[in-house]
Structure formats: C-alpha cells, structure tokens
C-alpha cells in the first residue's frame, strides 16, 4: 500500500498522509457510522504513523449537525492525547453559524480558512510531547 494513501477501503473516508500530516477531505453528508469509523481510523493511523497533525477539510460539507460537531471535537481530543494537533479548514459561514447556534465550541480544534492555510498552521505548531516520554519521529 502506498505511504501517501492510507485508507483505500470502500465505505471509509480516505485518509491521505502528506509528510507529517494526515489529510481528510469530507464531501457531502457524512453518515453517523462513517463519522465514527473515521474517528477510529484516525486514532489508529496517528498511533501507527506518529504524525504530528491532522487536517480535516470540510469545505465540501453543507451542514454540520451536533453529532458531527461532537465527532470533530472527539477527533481533536484523541489526536491531542496521541501528540498530534487537529485543524479544521474550509468551514462555510453557514456551518459556522449553525455550530454557534447549536452551542458547539469544538474545544481543541484549530481552524483555518483553507486547506493551504491549515497546512501552514500545522507547520508552525511546535511538536507535542507524547505521553510517557519524548516524541519519536517516524523514519
């Protein structure tokens, strides 16, 4: 399997590895089961690869409900425990308004206007120390 393309299985959201960052691009509606599978896949991939960042591009998402908002916050919390930062990029104004109306603050998530800005933001972040010792870089 290519190092760049980590999850080619049908029914899963593709997770691409770009250097030390995992890139997830969400398109359209994300069903609850797929959102939960994405959460599990990201935690496993971060743990296995030791990446330092996760960029979730939601520019193709029209609506974020409370469940998806909670999943995004949980992804960020899990990534932080695994010594990675999470950036959500490309949020539409209507999505931001909906999140505020729902009272979702999405703790632990950094935001960027575009995927490019998100990659720059992750590049500027200092590495997070892994629990139990210093961060080990992947070869």
TrEMBL record:
Domain STAS: 11-104
InterPro entries: Bact_StressResp_Reg, STAS_dom, STAS_dom_sf
Any matching Pfam family: STAS
Stored SUPFAM superfamilies: SpoIIaa-like
Protein name from the UniProt record: STAS domain-containing protein
Xref: CDD domains: STAS_RsbR_RsbS_like
Gene3D superfamilies reported in the protein's UniProt record: STAS domain
Organism: Streptomyces purpurascens
